[in-house]
Every structure is written in C-alpha cells, then in structure tokens.
Amino acid sequence: MPAADLARRRPRVGAVRLRIGRGTLVLPPLGIVLLVLVGPIAVLMLYSVNLRTNIPGTPTAFSSANWKDFLTGPGNPFRERFFYSMKITLLVSVAVTVAAYPLAYYLAFIARRFRYTLLLVLIAPFFTSYLLRIVAWSDIVLNNNGIVNQALWDLHLRPHGNGVSWLLYSNFSIFLVLFYAWIPFVSLPIFAVLENMDHQLTEAATDLGASRFTTFWTVTFPLSLPGVIAAFVFVLIPTTGEFIAPLYVGGPNNQLFGNEIQSFFGDSPNWNYGAVLAIALIVVVLVLMLVFGRFLNSDLRSRRSGR
Amino acid sequence: MRLRLGRVALTAYFWAFVLFLFAPLAVLVVFAFNQSMTPTLPITAWTTHWFHQAFSDTELTGALLRSIGIGAATGLFATALGIMASIGLSARRLRLRALIVAILLLPLVVPYISLAVGLLVLLNQLGLQISLWAVFLGHVVIALPFAVLVILPRLRSLDPAMIEAACDLGSNELTAFNLVTLPLLLPSLVSSFLICFITSFDEFAIASFLAPPGQPTFPVFLYTGSRAPGLLPELIAIGSLIIVGSLVVIAIAEGGRRWAEGRLRGIPAEEAELPAGQDVPTLQI
Amino acid sequence: MGFSDALVPLEVPVGVVGIDRRQFLVAATGSLGLGVLSACGSSSSSTASPSASKRPPISAEPGTLSILEWPGYEAAGTKAQTYGLLAGSEYTKKYGTSGITYTYIVNDDEALAKATSGGPFDIIHPCHENIPDYVNRGLVQPWDTSLLPSFKQLNPYLVRATQYRGKQYHIPWDWGYGSLLYRTDKVSAADAAGWELAWNRKYAGKISLWNGASTNFEIAALKLGYPNMDVLTSSQLQSAKQALIEQKPLNKLYWGSEYSQEQPNFKSGEVWVTYCWQDSLVSMTKAGLKCAFLQPSQGRLSWICGFMLGANTKNYYHAHAYVESYINRVAAAQMTNLFYYGNSNSTVTAADIKDKTLVRALDLSNPKAVTTAPNHLQSWSPNRSALELAWQEVQAA
Lengths: 307, 285, 397
Hints:
The structure holds 3 protein chains of 3 kinds. By secondary structure, chain B is mostly helical.
C-alpha cells in the first residue's frame, strides 16, 4: 500500500529514533478488546465447569455435569428452547431476506437517479433507537387498547374491549418486531451487489431475446446471490442472540435463548448453569460465522475476479 | 404492458415498506402530544404537557444524561482507538495481521447478552462493584469494530501523494498526520463518532447488568419505565424527540458528507453521490 | 445489536471474513489460555462493616439511600409513591426525597440475585424465608434496635420469627397472605375449592400466576399435598416441576408487576383467576368487580416481610431513621387501612382499622395469624438453587 511508504521515513525532528513501527499502534485497541472480551469469556468458561461459583461457601471442583445436562440430558428444556429460538431466527432471516430483495432491486434498477437518497430514506429508521421502535409496537400499536384493536372495535369487526389475543406476547409479535427491525439493514448488501453488477450482462441477455423475467432469473438473480447470502448472514448472526424484543413483546412461551441466559443471571443466582448457556450461544454464533463467512468470502472473491 | 406492471408493482412495494417502516415512528411522535395518560385512539386533546413533565423528571433526565455522557465518551474513545488500530493495520509489515483483524472485529459477532453476563461475572471475580465505568468499557469494545470498519477503508483510500508532499515539505511524521491525514479522515471520524455514540446510547444488554441501581442508562430506564403506566407518556415524549433528532442528524450528516466528499475531491456536491475509485460501493455516512 | 450494523461498509466483510479458519481457532484457544491465567487468583469477599466506633454521625453521612423495595412501598413524598401510602413521611419531611433511589423487586429470588451481584443496597425489603441467605452471603448486618423508638411496640412473635442466630437482622413490617383472587361471577363455587383452580382447564388463558419462582413451587407442593411445602425431596421437586409445566399453558402470562400487569389484567377482565396478595382483593372490590380471595382447602400461603440493613451501608443512621418512619404506629396503621396487610406494630388494634369485615376475614388482629392453620408461612428452603434451576426449566418448557 502506498501509504505505507511513510514507514520508511524517519522523523527529521526528534531526539529519539524509534524502531517501533506503526504496527505497534494496534496494541492498545487490541489489548482492550482482549481484556474486555476475552476475560469475561474465560471466566464464564470457569463457571460453566464449576471451577468457580457465585454462591459463597459452595465447594468448587471441576465438573462437566452442567454441560452434559445441557447437551445430552433427555428433554432438557433449555436445549428445546434453543431449538425453538433458532427456528424463529431462521424464519425471520429468510423472511427478511426475501422481503428485502425487491426493495434492493427497486433501488438499483428502477429508482436510478435518486437511489442513494432513497436508500438513505429506507435505512433512516435504523438509525433511530431500536428500543423506542419496539416500545411503539408494544405499547401503542399492538397492545390491548392500542391502535390496531381500537380500529377493529371502531369498525365493529370485534366486540368492544375484546382485543385480538395473539397480537402481542405471541410468536407473531416477536416475528413482526424482528422483521420490522431488520428489513432496512438487509437491503444494503443486496443493493450493493445489484448496483455493482455489470449491466452489459443483462443487456446481452435482452439482446439475445430473453424476456425480462428470464433475464432476471437466469442472469441477475444468480449474480446477486452473494449479496443475498450476505444479507441472510447479517440478520442471522445478531438475531441468534436476540433477547430484547421478547422482553417487550414476548409471552412466557415465546422467550428466546438469549432470554434464558438473561434470566439465569438476573433472576436466579445460578451462574454455573447460565455460563453454560452463554458460552453455548457464543459457540453457535462463531460456528455460523465460520460456516457462512467462508462461503461469503469465496463467492465475493470469485465475483471480483470477473467470472 | 408487463414491463410497466412490474415497475409499478415494485415501486408500490417499496413505498409501502417505507410507510411500514416509518409508521411506528410517526405513531410515537403523534402520541407524544396526546393528552390522555394511556396511548389509545381517538386522540381527543393535544398537549405539550408531557415534554415539560419529562424534562422535570429528574430520574428520566438523569438517565438521559448518563446515556449521553457514556455515549459521547464511547464515541471519542472508540474513535481514537479506531484511528490507532487503522494506522497500525495499514502498516506495511504486520505480523499475524489476519488474527489481529479477527480479534478487533470479534465484538461484532459475540452476542451482547453473553458479553454482558461475562462482564458481570468477571467483575464479581475481581471483587469489583458494577459501575458505569464498566458499562463504558463494554461499550467501547463493542463500538470499536465499527470505528475500525469506518476509518480503515478511508485511511487506505487516501491519496498518499498528499502525505508524501507534506513530508517532502519538511514536516515530520506526527505533524503530517495531524495536518494532512486527520483532516482528510474527518468525514470518517465524524461517522465513526456518530456510529459509536448511537451504539452506546441504545445499548441495553450490558447496561442492564452493569449499571448500578439508581444510575440507570436511558435504555434501562426505558425498560423499567415502560412497565409503569404512569411513566409511559413521558417516555413517549422523550422518545419522539430522540427519533426526530436522530433523523435530523442523519439528514445533516449525509448532506455534510456529500458536501465534504465533493470538496475533498474537487467535484461539485451533486456528483459526490457516487464515491469513485472503489469496486464495491461503500455506504459511508 | 441493531441498526448500527447498517453502516458497515461492505467491502470489509470480504477481508475480515476471509480469515483463515485455522487462525480463528488459534485465536480462540489462545484466548482460553489467557483467560485461565487471568482468572487464577483473586476471589471476592465482602468487606466487614465498619465498627460502631468508626461510624460517622448522621450529619456526616451522605444521606443517599439505595433501597431494594417492592413497588407500592415507596416512602410518602417520593415521586414514585402514587398509591396513597403515608409511611416514610416523617423521614422524607426531615431529610428530603432526593437522596432516595428505589430498585424494584419482582420476586424474592430475583431480589436476592440483584442484591448479590448488583450494586450495594442500603436497605432491602425481603420476606422472611430469605433471611438466612442474605445473612450467609454477607449482604446484611444486624439492626441496632435501640435506634428504633417504635421497636418495642412491635409484635414480639414476629420479632422472634425474624431473628437469625440471635440477632435482629430483619425488622418485620408487613405480613399477609398469598392466594388466588377469582371472579365470583365467572368462576363457579365448586371450582373454587383449592389451589387446583389454577390447573383447571375450563379457565385456560384466564389464569395468571406470579412470576414468583419458589412461591409457585410452594403452590404446586400444596396442590400435590406434600407435608412441607418448603422442604421437598428431589422426587417431590420433580413432580412439582411437572405440575407447573402442565399448568404453564393455562396462564395468560406470569405477571411480574402488580400494578402494571396483575391488577390491570384482572380489572379489564382478561384474567379471571390471579395469584395475588390481599391488597388486590381490596383494590378490585373497590373497582366494582365481584371477586373473592380464595381460601383453599390446602390452606393459603402467608408471609412476613420487612427491612434488612445493607452490610456496607454508609448511611447507617439514615437507614434506621427511614425504617422508624415506617414501623411507627401511625404509619403502620395507615398501611393496613390502605392495603389491608397486617402490620407488625402491636399497638395498632382492630379499632384503628376501618373495614371491620375485612379485619375479621383476614384475621388481622391475630398476632400469630401467619402461622395459624390452615395458613402456611413461606419459610426458608434448603435447596434454593435446585428450586431456581427447576423454575428456569419450567419457564423454558
């Protein structure tokens, strides 16, 4: 990189000739991340194998009982809840990606002139507070006396005072809120790929007589797949650890895996078991990252090389 | 015919979604002026009373100030660390570069709830009390990847000729950095600050575990407050301000960015929409 | 995580994500090594409270009371006290309200967790079954009862019940019952015979138990007829857990907040059967609903709650003054007239309480009501952590 030429230059003024290269500047940020990120994970690991405990006076000795129970215990409810959580996560990720594709397509191909401005309009809600947007759903729109129910009552579609029970504290409300939160963001990678596509390819297809739909299906869509996968991953990974939405709009049967973890550390002082869950979540996310990240990377590289 | 239908359908779809996205925000703003204690339709009377009440509620303003303070501190500190990391990463020879990048970006991937409980456990292990300092540190670490992701590409894309020119003209490395590199980096530094600020301001997981009782950050206060029906109107009022404020900031920031990009490249502002010289368009706000 | 991700420039994931898988695993194992090293060594222990001789006089104390408290019990004069309680008014009149901050209790297990890992509290308001845990974790110190003028007026039976290891760690204040409040116009009298009402499928979706962890296990234990609801064998615990898992889908929700969930849901008719304490009977009757506070065949739950003093409090004298402003005769009587909980001040008699029918129905003039059959006093459970894990399993099921 040309900017690295600077490294060759030595300071003309200054008494000390430092042999330390610019690379050492990376140490303070690296150190802080290691301390604040790795330290907690390490201590959590100790708790998960019972080498430490938060209840004073309880003996500590290495024990993989909690891990065994979580991973292999028959009918373990926390494991069940994890699978439920992943199901919702996958559902939301797929739905969001599918729904965002036309938005990105519109921006890239139809709204040619103002596409960046419109993109900004689309993502703008994302910059406002996530929590406040959830509160809008949970306390104004979906709740028992909220807008939707009031409208139903005013239109005499339902008897007054009788609200739709599954609007809030249900699978529906969690799905809706997560969908709502992620749609804008997910359009970005798809848009980027569509935007960057070589239009000559689609022109060539049309010149060869393909209909608009065929062009899309055989040329545009396959080329945009890396963006689609990226979008899917961008939702999947954070949503795996999601726990805020269920706190506001989830019922007791809709709590996600993140809520389990929160409840172990907030509601009951069983940190040993909670640590197992917390680490399991990290591992799952890392695995997802490795699996999909590799896939992402190779696809993008091949696209770049012009194939 | 099918052509037009497709276009019309997609356009309708897009705008329907924009409506869907903005509707809850609009709802918040509208109900901030609602006279009654509970947010229900129809709205019979309007008032600005809740804004006054919100600002005279010391617990609410305290929580807001705490969040703003920690957010600003996070923005500054994470940006500074981001600059350091970016410079370090752009060094020509760097051992274990990929590993360092992986570690620096690791907070993006670690679920915040796991990190939050991990920090709680770590503090307990070290015999420390939970405190806003811990919240600050946690926020810096989760904001740092964003700072790096925003500053590093910008640093890499700088025309080295300008820096070489400065050195040729006799300035040492540090001065060249201060007088040439930093100003050129300014748009990305502002972006970085904003992103890190927002990340910290809206962060709930870490704050909920590490903020001491009686010193909640705004997200924590919002959560406990939304459970109390008496506090809801005030929260909606403040919420509407935050929403409108962020939208205004976004608009200004984007406008400013385009203006700055244009100036830095010497091209008119309208053409600054499309950043040149990169094969994947990056959206840098 | 959320919207900040939107601003990530897209070219970077290429470079980042394309890191070598092997290097990533190296980083992970390296972190483990670092972590093990850093974790060896320090252990936490709470420091001893300053001895009496080193204690600063009240004027030198910061005067900031951080209180872990049930919603509804905030001192009169504070903004949060909107329920009409007058207790605490002497304190707030003298010392003001700006120094008081409340952190709210959802249930006793959660309060214990908060007190253990959360910031230090000056005053905590737990119920008596938790006393040993608070003491054994070093979270509290004994009160100096000579600093509480009204202490000698307190019901000696309750005072003895809240001592631990011979010291007054807990000042009893309020006592009462826990049972199911039900709509007499919606629930047939035949169904309202005992705790099994909460398991009755006829009322599915109209039931709301408390998010009360160990309390729910006591309810299950009573329903299943176990001899001691607080000391369960492991097979009894499993059965109780199963029973609660069966009951779970019948709930509209496990309520966490009395004033923003339990009472509004019951009032609006969304819930016909709710676990609560007797103050809800009073509020809901006042709101015009036809309801009754179940007297189960197996007996109601009863509780004694009160104040404990933080082990490392810097506001020793303020804390005592605060508690005194609650336990004195006037404050205690007013509390009973408001919530119809019993109070611990024995100078308050039936004559001071307005609704005589309720006094009789709730046995408020009986100083030993909490342990009078068929009431079951919620007491300490030796296998608390097993209970809590079981409760987590119920919630996850």
